[in-house]
Amino acid sequence: MMSTLVLLIASGYAPASTRTANAAPPAPNRDISVAPESNTDYRPDMTAVQTDSYSVSTANPVSTAAARDVLAAGGTAADALVTAQLVLGLVEPQSSGIGGGGYILYHDAASDSVTAIDGRETAPDNAPDTYLSQISATDTRTPQPDARRSGRSIGVPGIMAALGTLHAQHGKTQWGDLVQPAITLSENGFDISPRLATTIEDNAADLARDSEAKAYYLNPDGTGKKTGTHLTNPAYATTLTSLKDNGPQALYTGKIADDIVARARSEHGGTTPSSLTTADLAKYNPTVKQALCGPYHTHIVCGAPPSTSGGVTVAATLGILSHADLSAMKPLKVDNNGGVPSPEAVHIISEAERLAYADRDAYLADTAFENLPDGDYTKLLNPDYLAQRYSQINPEKSMGTAKAGTFDTDHARGEDQPEHGTSHISVVDSYGNAASMTTSVESAFGSFHMVDGFMLNNQLTDFEATPRDDDGQLKANRVEGGKRPRSSMSPTIVYTMTKTGERGDLYAVVGSPGGAVIPQFVIKTLIGILDWGLDPQQAVALPNFGARNKPETGIGGEHPDIGNDGQATPEAQELVDGLARRGHTVNLDEQSSGLSAIIRTRDGHLLGGADPRREGAVMGG
Prior knowledge:
Layout: H1 2-10, E1 49-51, E2 55-58, H2 61-72, H3 77-91, E3 101-108, E4 113-119, H4 159-170, H5 175-188, E5 190-191, H6 194-202, H7 204-207, H8 211-217, E6 230-231, H9 234-246, H10 254-264, H11 278-282, E7 287-290, E8 292-296, E9 299-303, H12 310-321, H13 343-363, H14 383-390, E10 423-428, E11 434-440, E12 450-451, E13 454-455, E14 492-497, E15 503-511, H15 518-530, H16 536-541, E16 545-546, E17 552-555, H17 570-581, E18 585-587, E19 596-600, E20 606-610, E21 617-620
Parallel strand pairs: 17-18
Antiparallel strand pairs: 1-20, 2-10, 2-21, 3-4, 3-11, 4-7, 5-6, 8-9, 9-14, 10-11, 12-13, 14-15, 15-19, 16-17, 19-20
């Protein structure tokens, strides 16, 4: 254990055995505005769930059960997403809800098509490019108490409009019937889960800033409500009843819209207000786009195009890795928890991710405003370019920090924006349709602004706060009115590849929360399934690993083999030592993924896996 311990301490982490009992890992200079969501204890030795006709996985068993009931009654994957999201907004409000946004990838079996719906939040029309960095042109103080906790972080919520568009195109069940389960749960109540209770406790001081959030989440003495507390949300039930009766547009006009704007523009406790207007909400439209699909060995992997960077980052990384023989770099051991990946594999994958993240940070933004590089972001996925990127990988030495590729652009290269939060839903229905939806309010509890029973997002902090670099050049991912901030959400659907290289049969649905490292979680899972032959439960349970564009390589210390508790296995020691020899700065901090994966087996069954790091469950029939 000695060399591992040295590496951990060098990266600012101490094994649990060296910490005070129940204390959180030390986090020097930690900015709570970008702190990850709370983890739950890792659930070891979970096994894949096999079903015959339909399957759904969400981050909370209450939500999964509600979505399963929709599928059992003959609903489509689109129908199941609506119910699942509305229930998640009640039982997992720290992660997602109707006050946030997200991306949907949908496979329609009848037309054999796959499309993406962009339900990302937008900035108010009158937001200047200094919206997050100063209060006004004359008041150069930063928003108070900071950008996240002020109204400036709140974008126009997009997920309800996106779900409305999806349901109109692919729904089978009546809209009101899909909303009713969340109404009933809001009125009858639910028991606070361990993860929600922990997240309330971690954020109690900020929840106390908002009168509605304070009354709902905290006890009279200011402490957070505990695990098992039975919680009802009549305000959310009223909001949902309006959505049931009037459709998703009820969020964007009328009383709910008025309440959202009033809450965002309030100056309670000296908070800097938003410039959001009811006109901003009324004009919001999700965008339906062609999915971003590309080959990886014998499969076609499809994701969402910008405004999220996730689909491009996953595709670029896989395109680089297509030149490596990862199938020959099997995990050091395989068990129900996925085993431990080899240092050779983690090195190659992390290096490929560094290269992909370098381009992502430099060039990607909302293509309705920025179409980069060289006028076409897909040039980042050109096979010849990705082959050249692979040639930059030294199999024996980490590059530490990669340089972005050179493209013609008038914009300054951006930076790696930290992101956290989010939830994910994977569905395959009895008709052969499939959906992958990643949805978020950004950080835990979003902006901490609560209105009409739900939390408002802080997604605008995914823009770069300063619009120009030191040389005065504009950054692509700067704030502009009506613009969507860059995201890392990576909903993914995988297909077999035909002999002629075309998209074949539906094979897998994958996705995860996790902020800026979502692409790493998805890539790890895809490689586990496609290269290493793991079942979906093993693949999501496998230790999280990878790198953004920095020298640090993360290995999720929450995994029982990695040794968060000071009990690293010999294989984990081999992994850490092998990375250290290649020049990686190894960080074993816990990682809060929430992966789910569903695959269709050769005999036609469905096999699903849920991340043991959260409370999710797979159910079907």
